[in-house]
């Protein structure tokens, strides 16, 4: 039963949960959280806070997101003092350029989509997401929301410890992999001292400040139909890229109807395909058919692992842009199909043989205001800094989301011009079965995201953990085949029990690959917010 306001929890949390009444911002960087909270103090709402926080994160956490990335949002807009309202979904992922064809990629010598360079770059949606959210639901002037991010980029900031570590890792990889002229500006932009910044060192990026100013002044028009678009187009042409100004000019984010699955009296909401949120819902539907047992019972963990694997097999096979899906959401979540998949779970580990999940670079944030509005927002360059392509003089690091396209002509997610690929970033939201909102949640980290969603939801609903304890709890990660990674502090008896059931258990000592989440849950009876933030990064919660 979901009891986030219980004073005691069955799992000892590393941090105390945070409570507030008038507003809350949970993000992976303290400076970004504070910026969002400041927007609430200036009379902004949860949407304003989310935009300002997201823009700041492109500056202080470039290892996971950037101006050249994609974004998704679930937005709860309250209609009355009790918090009743409606959930809205925004898909700001971008299409493949019109010149990017399967034949062109294969003619360039690729047997699969590459990770770096221009080939995996699709149209970025992040700036358009900020502008569209502000247009439809914001209260403050759009330029006001980007002022703090511009100031951080121009004046600088001290790099936080986890981000410094990720930055150094990216530099090491890029030094050995990025030799294309299209990626040369990455080093000028992100290693101005000849190396990645260390923890506590001051970093600034005047190029990014000017770009954010242009986005602020034009409500992102410059990025898609103005000077910034012209610079992106020119650099792409000069360095062998596929992206053109007409691809940018044709882009607009899409308002979508969120999809949900009911799990033990709680409705879990996700963005519909092309996002992978459907994977989390399929896994939860499978799990709901089992009677809940204790969190430390081996049967609980085994069922979670098996349900996750089965859901991923279907997700990686069928999820793409809806028009190209052979089986739709209703079919994949149907009672009959769920029972069929659940029946495959026995006492021993399955080997469903899907593609191998991998880690990625993303930031997630959650906001709430005193009117009951709440935002679940996620933005990403996909894999760390993205493709390695940086538009000279702009600070714009282009994402590499197209890496997820298949080159198999028979696959639902095969590359095609103007098509959106299977997308890993997924914001989540919870409501009660009576329609009252509970709040936003998310766990960033590539293919870890639906796995994190399932673990956080079951921690909340099945085991009564509060948001902070639900995030603190040790995590597992399915890594392909029968291989399961667990954090080093995962209960040893469960690791042994899973090995006895045929799982290939790997104890991982680096927790960064297990996702980084945020969560805000609202008590429908009192309006009090309870927040949790990620112990695996430099996260914080700011309250109003």
UniProtKB/TrEMBL annotation:
Protein name, as recorded: Gamma-glutamyltransferase family protein
Top-rank taxon, per record: Bacteria
One Pfam assignment: G_glu_transpept
InterPro entries attached to this UniProt entry: GGT-like_enzyme, GGT_lsub, GGT_ssub_C, Ntn_hydrolases_N
Coiled-coil residue windows: none
PANTHER family documented for this protein: GAMMA-GLUTAMYLTRANSPEPTIDASE (AFU_ORTHOLOGUE AFUA_4G13580)
Native organism: Modicisalibacter tunisiensis
